[in-house]
Amino acid sequence: MAKEKLVVISTSDLTNNCPKCFNQELKLTFYQKHTYGALYHKITGEITQAITCNTCKSTIYPVDWTDDIERVFEYYKKAISPEKKSLKYTSLFYGLILFFIVAISILIYLGFFSNLKTI
């Protein structure tokens, strides 16, 4: 079973007012989704974000965003640089490939020489 992990790309402190407590201590965090499996490590292009208030510890959802927060969010969204999408195989994957190649080679070798002895 593959494990999914959100890796932090960027965090920024915002000076906008919190829509719930009206303090100016907001934090914007961008995450990129990574998937880890036994045979691979995949970096996806999926980017998510979260805006939290440092004072009231609440998450500010896009429904509650003001126009100022949206403008600042769009600015920071353009400024982030996520990792490129990629797929990297683990050493277990390469070990299994090598094992299957050797196993098939042995079966072919034994099958070839067993046919020569019967002729």
Rg over alpha carbons:
26 Å
| Structural class category | alpha+beta
Shape: rod-shaped
Q: Give the helices and strands as they follow along the chain.
A: EEEEHEH
Number of helical segments with 4 or more residues: 2
The total beta strand count reads: 5
User: Runs with pLDDT <50, length 5+?
Assistant: none
Residue fraction in strands: 35-45%
Helix content: 25-40%
Q: Could you walk me through the main structural features you see in this protein, from its secondary elements to its overall organization?
A:
The protein is an alpha+beta fold and 119 residues long. It contains two helices and five strands, in the order E-E-E-E-H-E-H. It has helices spanning 67-79, 91-118; strands at 3-14, 26-36, 40-53, 59-60, 86-89. Strands 1, 2, 3, 4 and 5 form a five-stranded antiparallel beta sheet that branches. A hairpin with a 3-residue loop joins strand 2 (26-36) and strand 3 (40-53). It is rod-shaped, with a radius of gyration of 26 Å. The protein starts with a strand and ends with a helix. The mean pLDDT is 89.
